[in-house]
Amino acid sequence: MKTTAYHPQTDGLAERFTRTLCDMLACYVVDEPEEWDRYLPFVTFAYNTSQQTTLRDNPFYLFFGREPVLPNDIKINRNFEGNENEHELYYRKWRSAQELVREHLFKAQAKQKRYYD
């Protein structure tokens, strides 16, 4: 979809993300607002690994097809080795999750259209 340049009202999705990002950053930079860029990687990771209402899954999983390796996973020294067919299983689960997300997005768009109309 094309939008008019320099008119943020025409791109609601980007505006909503920006608002969420600013709200999340505000929790960290209360004492040092000029240091907001130091917290950006942590905040974006938190955003990408949290479940989204519309998607009903986290963006990290939908993009990479696996759950993220968190510091706690490394600390307890989990064994990440698998058998040779495991990649096929992950791929099927990932594709299934993407199909499910498409359905959720379609339903959410229809719901938002009903509210708008």
From TrEMBL:
Highest taxon in the source lineage: Eukaryota
GO terms assigned for molecular function: nucleic acid binding
InterPro entries to which the protein is assigned, alphabetical: Gypsy_RT_Integrase-like, Integrase_cat-core, RNaseH-like_sf, RNaseH_sf
Domain Integrase catalytic, chain residue ranges per copy: 1-67
GO process annotations (BP): DNA integration
PANTHER family (alphabetical): ENDONUCLEASE-RELATED
Protein known as: Integrase catalytic domain-containing protein
Biological source species: Daphnia sinensis
